[in-house]
Q: What sequence folds into this?
C-alpha cells in the first residue's frame, strides 16, 4: 500500500529529467539534492537545522539506521497533530523556525493550552512530551525533536508530502495505541528503504576502501597494520606510487577520487577510523560485526550508527561554533576557520597524520590555486610556477604561521573567559579549573563550606559571585588561578570582535554563546596544540628544509600530471 | 602495538568496510553542493504558504520552477486553508466557470453592470467566523495570489479587471483555489 504511494524512488525535486538522477559514479544527485534542501533550510533566522543535527541525519541515512528514529517520529506526529491545532503536525514540524529544543518546548506548550487531549492522552513532562497509550507510555524529549524534525524534512523532501502524510494519516486515524505508531513507522521505513536502494549505492565507497587496502597490502605487505596508515602512505597513495600498479590497478585508477591531496588525507583518515572501529568491536566480542542476518554477513545498522557517532567527530568544533548560540560570538574569523578546518574535520586522526596536515596547509593551498587556475583555463605560463611550488609557503613559514594563529586564538579564548567572569557565569569557574587542574582549592573549599554550611559541590546561585571573586584572589587560590583571571580580564579589554564589545556582552544570548563556544574552542585548540607537537616530533626543525625540498619535488611531479602541459 | 588488518578477521574487516563506506557517504552528503540553488524544503514552502503578501512571489516562482513540488504545495495548501475549492467537473463546465463550490466556501464571478470591463469576485464563506486573508488560485504553471479584505456577514467581494489574472484563473475549470 505504502509502496504504491511512495514507490517513486526517483522523485526529482529539481524538476529535471530522470536522466539527471542517474547515479554519478555511485553518487545520487537526487539524494544529494534532497539532503542539501534540508541542510539549507533557512526561514530567515539562520539555518533551521544545526550542523550537529545534519551530521546525525547523515549518519542515520548512510547507516540505514532509521528504524528507531522513525518509530519516535511516528509517536511525535501523534502529539504534533494535536498541538498543531487546525493545521496539524505540519504546524509544529514546519512551523518551528529554528529547530532547537526550546522552540519545540514552546510549540508544545502553546499546543497544550488549546488542546484538550493534553489533559488526557498527552502530558508535558520536564524534558519532553509523554503519550499515555492504553498499551504503554512513550516519551519524546525536546532534545530529540530537532533531529526528528530534520528527519521529517528529509522524508518529505525525498518521498513527497502526500506520500508521507498518507502513511501518517492512517496511523492518526487508527486506534490510539502504541502499536499503531509502530505500523506507521514500519511503512515509512519500507518506503525509505526502497528510496535509498536506488539512491544510496555504496559501490564507489567500497571500491575506494578496497583500493586503499590493496595499496597498503602492496606497499607494506599483507600483514600491514594501523601504524602503516601513516603520512608516507598518504603521500605515496596520492602521488600514484608504484604499489598501486603492483596491486593490479593502473596507476591512475580512481584518480578522480584522489585528485586532491586533501581527498587522499581524508580517505586514509577514514581508513584509520574504520580499522580502529573493527579492532574495538573485535575486542568486545569476536563475532560482533554480524548483525541481524549473520549468514549474509550483514552489519546491524543500529550498531553501525553507534560506531559512527563514536568515531565521526568530523568538523564538530567548527560546526558548533557556527551554530546558535555560539554563532553570536566571533570566536574565529573566516580565515582562521578555514585554517583550522582540516584539523577539526579530521579530529584525532589529524594528530595521527601530522605531516599530512602540514602538507595540506602548504602544498594543498597551492593545489587549490592550481585547481582554480585550471577551471578558468589559465595559460600554462601562469600554472607552471605554481606547479613548481613558487608562491607557496615553506614548512618553516607554515609552522611559524601556526604558532601565531595559536597565540591569537588563545587570546580570544582568554577574552571569552574574561567575559564569562564579568557576567558572573559559573562556566568561568569550570574553565579556570579545567585550565589549571592543579589548583589548590583547599582554602576556597573551607571558606565556601563555612558560608554555605554544606558541601561545596552543591553550589547555590548566590555563591557563584563569591566563587568567581575568590578565583581571582591570589590569597585564596594562589598565583596560578589569579594570574589566569587577570590575564582573562586584560585580554577582554584588548579584543573588539563581535560578541566581545561592551554592548554585545550585555546581551544574554551572547553570554550563552560565550559559555557554549569557549569549551569547544578550547578543545579545538588543544587538538591543534597536539597536532603541532606531533609535527615537532615527526619533523625536527633542522630537517624541515630538506623534507620540504623533497616533498616539493613529489608534489611538483603530481601537479604536472594533473595541471601541466599533458593534463 | 599496531592493530593488524589480518588480525581483524573476516567480521572485523567487514565492519571496517561498512564503517569506511558510511563515513565516506556521510562526508559526501554533508558536503553535497552544486551550482544550482537547492529546491525549497517543506518548512520553507509552509512558511511561504502561511506568509501572505510577503512571500507570494516566491511561492509563485517555485510553482513555475519546480513542477515536482506542485503536489507538495497543493497538499500544504489543503492543510493550511480555511476553504479549498477543487477543479470544476467537466460536465458542469460551460465556456467559462462563473461559480464554483468547495469545502468551506463558494465563489461567484459577477460582471459589473456599471463598468463592463470589471468583474466582482464574490466569496461566500460557510463559516462567517473564518476570516481568510488571501486567495490562492493555481492552474497550469500559474499561481495567482489575491489579498482579501475582512468578510462582511460571511461575504468577501473583490472588484477587479475582467481581464485580470485572477478572473481568468477563476473562470478556468482546471483551476484549484484555496482561501487562507
A:
Amino acid at each position: 500500500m505504502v509502496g504504491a504511494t511512495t514507490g517513486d524512488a526517483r522523485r526529482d525535486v529539481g524538476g529535471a529529467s530522470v536522466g539527471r538522477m542517474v547515479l554519478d559514479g555511485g553518487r545520487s544527485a537526487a539524494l544529494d539534492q534532497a539532503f542539501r534542501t534540508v541542510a539549507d533550510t533557512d526561514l530567515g533566522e539562520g539555518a533551521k537545522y544545526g550542523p550537529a543535527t545534519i551530521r546525525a541525519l547523515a549518519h542515520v541515512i548512510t547507516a540505514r539506521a532509521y528504524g528507531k528514529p522513525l518509530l519516535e517520529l511516528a509517536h511525535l506526529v501523534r502529539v504534533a497533530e494535536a498541538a498543531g491545532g487546525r493545521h496539524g503536525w505540519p504546524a509544529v514540524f514546519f512551523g518551528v523556525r529554528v529547530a532547537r529544543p526550546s522552540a519545540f518546548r514552546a510549540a508544545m506548550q502553546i499546543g497544550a493550552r488549546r488542546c484538550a487531549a493534553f489533559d488526557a492522552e498527552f502530558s508535558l513532562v520536564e524534558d519532553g512530551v509523554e503519550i499515555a497509550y492504553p498499551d504503554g507510555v512513550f516519551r519524546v524529549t525536546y532534545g530529540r525533536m530537532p533531529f526528528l524534525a530534520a528527519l521529517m524534512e528529509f522524508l518529505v523532501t525525498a518521498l513527497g508530502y502526500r506520500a508521507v502524510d498518507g502513511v501518517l494519516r492512517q496511523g492518526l486515524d487508527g486506534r490510539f495505541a502504541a502499536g499503531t505508531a509502530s505500523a506507521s513507522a514500519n511503512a515509512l521505513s519500507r518506503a525509505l528503504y526502497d528510496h535509498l536502494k536506488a539512491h544510496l549505492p555504496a559501490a564507489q565507497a567500497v571500491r575506494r576502501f578496497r583500493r586503499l587496502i590493496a595499496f597498503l597490502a602492496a606497499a607494506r605487505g599483507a600483514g600491514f597494520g594501523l601504524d602503516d596508515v601513516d603520512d608516507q602512505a598518504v603521500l605515496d597513495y596520492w602521488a600514484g606510487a608504484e604499489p598501486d600498479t603492483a596491486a593490479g590497478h593502473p596507476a591512475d585508477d580512481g584518480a578522480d577520487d584522489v585528485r586532491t591531496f586533501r581527498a587522499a588525507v581524508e580517505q586514509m583518515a577514514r581508513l584509520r577510523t574504520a580499522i580502529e572501529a573493527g579492532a574495538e568491536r573485535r575486542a568486545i566480542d569476536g563475532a560482533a560485526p554480524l548483525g541481524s542476518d549473520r549468514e549474509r554477513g550483514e552489519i546491524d545498522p543500529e550498531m553501525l550508527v553507534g560506531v559512527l557517532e563514536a568515531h565521526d567527530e568530523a568538523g564538530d568544533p567548527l560546526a558548533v561554533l557556527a551554530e546558535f548560540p555560539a554563532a553570536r560570538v566571533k570566536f574565529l574569523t573566516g580565515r582562521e576557520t578555514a585554517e583550522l578546518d582540516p584539523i577539526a574535520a579530521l579530529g584525532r586522526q589529524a594528530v595521527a597524520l601530522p605531516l599530512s596536515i602540514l602538507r595540506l596547509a602548504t602544498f594543498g593551498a597551492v593545489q587549490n590555486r592550481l585547481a582554480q587556475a585550471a577551471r578558468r583555463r589559465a595559460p600554462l605560463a601562469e600554472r607552471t610556477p605554481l606547479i613548481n611550488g613558487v608562491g607557496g609557503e615553506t614548512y618553516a613559514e607554515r609552522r611559524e604561521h601556526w604558532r601565531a594563529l595559536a597565540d591569537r586564538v588563545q587570546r580570544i579564548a582568554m577574552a571569552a573567559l574574561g567575559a564569562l567572569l564579568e557576567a558572573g557565569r559559573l562556566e568561568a569557574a569550570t574553565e579556570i579549573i579545567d585550565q589549571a587542574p592543579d589548583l589548590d582549592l583547599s582554602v576556597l573549599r573551607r571558606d565556601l563550606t563555612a558560608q554555605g554550611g554544606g558541601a561545596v559541590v552543591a553550589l547555590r546561585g548566590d555563591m557563584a559571585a563569591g566563587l568567581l571573586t575568590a578565583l581571582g584572589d591570589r590569597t585564596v587560590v594562589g598565583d596560578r588561578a589569579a594570574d589566569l583571571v587577570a590575564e582573562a580580564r586584560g585580554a577582554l579589554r584588548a579584543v573588539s570582535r563581535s560578541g566581545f564589545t561592551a554592548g554585545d556582552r550585555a546581551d544574554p544570548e551572547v553570554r550563552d554563546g560565550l559559555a557554549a563556544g569557549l569549551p569547544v574552542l578550547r578543545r579545538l585548540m588543544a587538538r591543534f596544540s597536539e597536532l603541532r607537537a606531533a609535527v615537532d616530533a615527526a619533523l625536527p626543525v633542522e630537517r624541515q628544509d630538506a623534507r620540504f625540498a623533497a616533498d616539493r619535488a613529489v608534489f611538483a611531479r603530481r601537479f604536472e600530471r594533473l595541471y601541466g602541459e599533458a593534463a | 602495538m599496531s592493530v593488524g588488518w589480518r588480525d581483524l578477521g573476516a567480521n572485523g574487516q567487514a565492519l571496517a568496510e561498512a564503517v569506511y563506506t558510511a563515513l565516506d557517504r556521510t562526508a559526501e552528503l554533508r558536503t553535497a553542493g552544486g551550482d544550482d540553488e537547492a529546491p525549497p524544503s517543506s518548512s520553507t514552502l509552509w512558511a511561504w504558504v502561511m506568509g501572505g503578501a510577503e512571500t507570494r512571489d516566491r511561492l509563485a516562482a517555485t510553482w513555475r520552477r519546480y513542477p515536482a513540488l506542485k503536489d507538495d504545495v497543493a497538499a500544504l495548501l489543503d492543510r493550511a486553508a480555511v476553504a479549498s475549492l477543487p477543479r470544476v467537473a467537466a460536465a458542469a463546465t460551460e465556456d467559462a466557470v462563473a461559480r464554483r463550490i468547495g469545502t468551506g466556501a463558494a465563489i461567484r464571478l459577477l460582471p459589473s453592470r456599471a463598468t463592463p470591463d470589471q468583474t466582482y469576485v464574490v466569496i461566500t464563506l460557510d463559516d462567517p467566523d473564518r476570516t481568510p486573508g488571501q486567495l490562492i488560485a493555481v492552474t497550469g504553471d500559474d499561481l495567482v495570489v489575491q489579498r482579501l479584505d475582512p468578510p462582511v456577514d460571511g461575504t468577501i467581494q473583490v472588484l477587479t479587471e475582467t481581464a485580470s489574472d485572477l478572473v481568468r484563473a477563476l473562470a478556468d475549470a482546471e483551476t484549484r483555489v484555496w482561501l487562507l
Q: What stands out?
A: Chain B touches chain A through 55 residues (CB under 8 Å).
